[in-house]
Amino acid sequence: MEVIHGAAHAAFPMGDASRVGEARRHAATLATALGWDDTTAGRLALVVTELAGNLVRHARHGRLLLAARGGAVPEIEVLSLDEGPGIADTARALGDGFSTGGTPGTGLGAVRRLADDFDLHSEVPGGTVVVARVRRARARPPARAFRFGVAAVCAPGETVSGDGWALALDGPRAAVLMADGLGHGPQAAEAAQAAIAQFAKAPFMPLDETLTLAHAALRITRGAAAAYVIADAKAGTVRSAGAGNITTRMVSGTVNKTLLSQHGTLGVHMRKPEPVDAPWPDHALLVLHSDGVQTRWPAELLAPLLMRDPALGAAWLLRHHLRGRDDATVMLLQRS
Prior knowledge:
Helix content is 26%, strand content 32%. It is of the alpha+beta class.
């Protein structure tokens, strides 16, 4: 079984060229913490520099998000988001020599070669999202029954997120817990991580048992909303339960179903959890997000991204529907 613990991305608004160096230095710190060699750290630095530079030169309200992620093969993820003007011809933009800003034009093409994972979505004039991941020595993660993507940011002015998430993968099964500590800041983070710690002890325990244990564990904290999902790719089913305002939706070209949670707060007040079972249609995405993201978003927003890297959809949803006053986390889970 593989258990992946998530953390919020560090966000770097690209308002001027000085932020490029700031993002690159943060990437170097993440690489050092993972014990990466100079070659891998160098690839990451180039990816960050190219994506950040593109945002400074070409984009409106560009942001670069950086996060290290554990699991069987640790990686560092770079998300680039902007609000326009978009790329009219993405295939041409990915070719070497293409430039609209008087530069050598090696940016996106170089990023695609340097990164171990790369994907891009752009709409004119809506904007562009890019995901690039770098792993040590070009390592590949193990074969998984699910693909996932996360975009997560702290509340304005905070350096830690009151949201938390963890994903467990075991053959055809996946278990996800997303928690949102009340408020934001360190005490909210403490509550969310207490829920994650309980989940990590036995991710595939019956949902109601885990939530009941987490409810007891969080009594010494300020409390948290939580959503807990166990999915079976082989059976094509999802079982979910939760307390509070974490949104869980199943979205595809033909399906738009919200998996309802019950009222309450772990550690404060919660009725006996009542798991809900639902089918997982082919090509559907399972979407979970905290209340830092608006709930009334159209399913059509993700239609062009159903078969793409799930991080693109997570970033696209965050870019369009971030409330901007609280921690925000979006996870997309996709059957491989």
